[in-house]
Amino acid sequence: MFKWKRLLTALVAVTLVGSLAACGGGNNNAAEPTGAKSEGNAATGSGNEPVKLRIMWWGSQERHEATLAALDLYTKNNPNITFEPEYSGMDGYLDKLSTQAAAKNAPDIVQLDPGWAPDWANRKQLAPLDAVDVSKIDPKLLAGGQLDGTQYAVPLGSVAFGMIYDKAALDKLGVKNPENGWTWDDFFALAKELKGKLPDGQYFTKDYAANYFMYSAYQYSKGKGMVITEDGKFNIDETSFLEWTKHFEELRKEGLVPPADVNSSDKEFDPQMDLMVAGKILFRYSFSNNYSAWDSIKKGAYALVTMPRAEEAGGWLKPSMYLSVSDNSEHKAEAEAFINWFVNDPEVAQILKTSRGLPVNKDNATALESSMSDVDKVGMGLLRATEIDGQTWTAGAGGWTNYIDKDFPLVHDQLSFNKITPEEAYKQLKEAAAAYE
């Protein structure tokens, strides 16, 4: 079981397979009476009164453009509803949103990482989404957005956690590309193979010494379970953690990961600051939906591969992100109606494609898969390869967001700058966990 407390990218950050080809149409223009719902629309509850909805999300430029186009379509179909969009990259997103929520000024509609949803629901910062039609969504994807049987957050897509690499650079170096199902032994052996072949200023991968997500994948693959248990207990396996951090200590000494200042300068998907886009690293973790964003920057340069494994798989499938309605919203019915449309309408699925992962509405996903482009197939390939025996994702225990977003990065930076030993890093993480248990 996997406990996820950030993105993507994340997503993660950002765009499953890329831009799936257009498919299926649908128009659900008519507002329905309050309390009614259908496959395509929830109740608008707005009549003809003008309503402006604030909506906030993070992502890549591709996601921004697709979302803005979807908002325009909704206003065209519902002229009384307009939007005030707020969008950015992932950096600083949660801090900004949390500040707004604390001041009772959060946007009406908010995009949440799956790992945040339990905390937000427990703090009663989200409104119930009873009128959203979830009949065509896998219950496993819905579970993380529920509290006591009530849906407070609706998933938007499903994605696979794996790695992206610079295929063009590896081919130029005459190095064999990794294949799905490769192991951590293969991963670290490839790093050693590249020693002496890499030009100055180019490195094997980022320094992931105490990166929460990458270490979680390693511990999972060792059969040691979640870093934090579902009932909220510290569960870092000391032997696995020391193996992992000492591997990166060695890579650091051999110049196969970037110096600490370069490593910390990385900004995913930024054309100037993304270390892979800049040609400074060959490998980094990725979600399947990220591929098209990178491919749009350097056509044909990159490829995806499963997260390395050991006794078990290292990668997993998860909901990409959620949409929720803020409890402080004065337009809850209108916001809920929009979410229902955003998730279920086939016409908006044609616009959004896979900018937030493979659509959770099964009909929309099937229609998109049937008309995939070559770019789409790359991301879908990672998703299908991961779902064979990938780890099972869970939102896990609430209350650990700061541990993952702040305590782990602090320890990581100290390791990267050679300020502490792996043994000291483990001790710090164990001691910090006591405040959350």
Structural class: alpha/beta
Number of strands: 16
Annotated CATH topology of the largest domain: D-Maltodextrin-Binding Protein, domain 2
User: Which architecture name of the largest domain does CATH use?
Assistant: 3-Layer(aba) Sandwich
Instruction: Provide mean pLDDT, rounded.
Output: 88
Tally of individual helices = 16
What amount of the residues lies in strands?
A: 15-25%
What's the quaternary structure here?
Answer: single chain
Name of the level-1 CATH class of the largest domain: Alpha Beta
**What integer value in Å does the Rg equal?**
21 Å
Overall tally of structural domains? 2
Question: Which range best describes the helical content: under 10%, 10-25%, 25-40%, 40-55%, 55-70% or over 70%?
Answer: 25-40%
Largest sheet: 8 strands, mixed
Low-confidence stretches: 1-45
Superfamily (CATH H level) name of the largest domain: Periplasmic binding protein-like II
In short:
By secondary structure, the chain is α/β, with parallel strands linked by helices.
Give the topology.
Elements: E1 2-3, E2 9-12, E3 51-58, H1 61-77, E4 81-88, H2 93-102, E5 109-112, H3 117-122, H4 139-142, E6 146-147, E7 150-151, E8 154-155, E9 157-166, H5 167-173, H6 184-194, E10 203-205, H7 212-221, H8 238-253, H9 260-264, E11 281-287, H10 291-297, E12 302-306, E13 316-319, E14 322-325, H11 332-344, H12 346-352, E15 358-359, H13 362-369, H14 374-387, E16 391-394, H15 401-416, H16 422-433
Parallel strand pairs: 1-16, 3-4, 3-5, 10-11, 13-16
Antiparallel strand pairs: 5-14, 6-7, 8-14, 9-11, 9-12, 9-13, 9-15
Helix pairs in contact: 15-16
